[in-house]
Structures are given as C-alpha cells and as structure tokens.
Amino acid sequence: MYVLMVIVIGYLFGCLHGSQLVSKLKSVDIKNTGVKNPGASNTTILLGWKYGALVALIDIFKATLSILLVVYILNESGVVGETQTMLIYINALFIILGHNYPLTMRFSGGKGTASLVGVLIAIDWKIALISIGILLLFTLTTDYLVVGVLFMYLSFLITTYYFFGIEPTMIVVLLSVLSIMKHLENYKRILKKEETKLSSLFRKGAE
C-alpha cells in the first residue's frame, strides 16, 4: 500500500511541468522549439534566464514538496528507518519518471535535472550540499551544464551508498542510467562542438 502511494504521489507531482505554465504564459511552444526539451535550459535559450529560472524553481520544488508530503504521511503512519528511506527513494524515482514521461505531455517530457535538485534538497542536506556543489563545480569549470549533471548523479550515487546503503543506491543507478539516456544528444553535440554553453545562456537573458 505504501509503495503504491509513494509511486502515485511521485508521478503526479512529476507531471507538473514548469515549462507548460510558461509556455501558456508566453505563448511559446517550448517543447517543440529550440533544442526541443521542455525544461529550464531550453526555456532560457528561448526566453532568457528569468523565465528559465522560473521553470527551474517550479521543477525543483515540486520534487521537494512531493518528498516532504511522503515523509509527513509515513511519519504519521509510524513508518520510519530504512523502510521510510527506501520509500522516499522510490518516490524520487517516480518524480523523475513523471517529469520525463508525463501523462500531460503524451509521455514526452524533460530530462529531470531540476527535479533531481529538488529531490536532493528533500532527502538529506549533506547529500544535497555535496551533489549540488559538484554540479556547480563541473558546470562552471567546463561551461557545459550536462557535464555538471553527469557528475552530480555520480556524487548522488556515492553519497547515497555511504549514508543509506546498497538498496537506495540501486534506485540512484536507475536514475543515473535514465539521465544518461536522456542526455545522449547533449553529449553528441559536445563532441561536435554544437552544445549550448552555460555562458551563452546568461547572455541570452541580457538580450
């Protein structure tokens, strides 16, 4: 019963896309324009960093709220310890699945990066601090967000194993594989030197 509950909550929260709200607000089809990804990066490319930040905040905090809701329900039901941790990680998995494959967008959504940040914030402040720090370090060093994302997932995997053990780590492995698959086109564009750099995204906001 609890597994089904956290799956449903996670998926429904994941389906709430910030890009859909901004698309309606600005009358721009973010999903099918630019690099054709309904996320914060493409929103920034198309509309500037302010709207990109708005999409990112929505996608971040929908994930945080989903996990906080699950934690509240589990605490009220007396489900604690390793069982609660595993259920939280299952919820996190389905938040990302809901974001990447939302019913509201015919199962073709984003790549889950902002939502993962929200997951990290809700799961454990130490994991969040380390993983988001790694994201910023590698993104700023390479000028490619996708490189920072790759190392953020690696950090999340290592810190999850260190703090919570092997079972939650297996869920992070699934999330990492999903992220790599979703970002294959980005990796190809980096090799071709066609990937949008972080610095150019901020220049877009100044136009």
Automatic annotation (TrEMBL):
The protein's Enzyme Commission number: 2.3.1.275
Subcellular location: Cell membrane
Entries under Pfam families matching the protein: G3P_acyltransf
InterPro entries, sorted: G3P_acylTferase_PlsY
Reactions catalysed: an acyl phosphate + sn-glycerol 3-phosphate = a 1-acyl-sn-glycero-3-phosphate + phosphate
HAMAP family per the UniProt record, alphabetical: PlsY (MF_01043)
Entry protein name: Glycerol-3-phosphate acyltransferase
